Amino acid sequence: MIGLVGGILGIFLGIILSGSMSLLLPDLRFFGNTLVTLNSVAMALAVSVGVGIVAGFVPARKASKLKPVDALRYE
Fold first, then answer.
1. Residue 29's pLDDT is what?
2. Cα(14)–Cα(52) distance, rounded to whole angstroms?
């Protein structure tokens, strides 16, 4: 859920920043015309959710292999 919410917030922030860059700096070719497509939005959301899943799965998998006594001993 954190990856999904972060991805959605990042997409909105990216859209706002890309639009403002083209308005603030119209003379620069690099920022001249920005285009946010559905493919780029879907890819950004997929990467965000994927990173969130991996970041949650790997530590949980590692913790599930420990004995409860061993896990509590090091706190």
1. 63
2. 19
**pLDDT for residue 12 is more than 70:** yes
Output the CA–CA distances (angstroms, integers) from residue 17 to 14, 23, 72, 74, in the order listed.
Answer: 5, 10, 46, 45
What's the burial of 7, exposed, middle or buried (CB within 10 Å: 0-12/13-18/19+)? buried
- pLDDT range class, residue 33, cuts 50, 70, 90: low
Predicted pLDDT at 31? 55
Cα distance between residue 56 and residue 65, in whole Å: 15
- Structure tokens, 28: 């620069």
- The letter for the amino acid at 44 is A
Local structure of residue 66 (DSSP, 8 states):
S
What residue type is assigned to position 65 of the chain? K
38-64 and 2-24 helices, crossing angle to 10°: 150
